[in-house]
Amino acid sequence: MKITSLRTPCVLIDQRRVERNIDRMQQAAEAGGKRLRPHAKTHKSPDLALTQVARGAIGICCAKLGEAEVFADHRVSDIRLPYPINPVNADRVLALLDRTQLSFIVDDLEVARGWSRQMAAASRSVDVLVKIDVGFHRCGVDPETTDAAEFVVQVAEMPGLRLKGLLSHAGQAYGATSADAVEEIAVREAGILTEVRQRVGAMGVALEEISVGATPTARFSAALPGITELRPGNYIYYDRMQVALGAAEWDDCALTVLARVVSRPDPKRLILDSGSKTLTNDQVRGGALPGYGVVLQALDDSTPDERFVIERLSEEHATVRVLDGTTSTLVPGDLVRIIPNHACVVSNLMDEIWVVDGEEVADALRVAARGRIT
Amino acid sequence: MKITSLRTPCVLIDQRRVERNIDRMQQAAEAGGKRLRPHAKTHKSPDLALTQVARGAIGICCAKLGEAEVFADHRVSDIRLPYPINPVNADRVLALLDRTQLSFIVDDLEVARGWSRQMAAASRSVDVLVKIDVGFHRCGVDPETTDAAEFVVQVAEMPGLRLKGLLSHAGQAYGATSADAVEEIAVREAGILTEVRQRVGAMGVALEEISVGATPTARFSAALPGITELRPGNYIYYDRMQVALGAAEWDDCALTVLARVVSRPDPKRLILDSGSKTLTNDQVRGGALPGYGVVLQALDDSTPDERFVIERLSEEHATVRVLDGTTSTLVPGDLVRIIPNHACVVSNLMDEIWVVDGEEVADALRVAARGRIT
Question: Which of B12, B277, B279, B342 should one mutate to test binding to chain A, selecting the residue with the greatest count of A CBs within 10 A?
Answer without folding.
Answer: B277
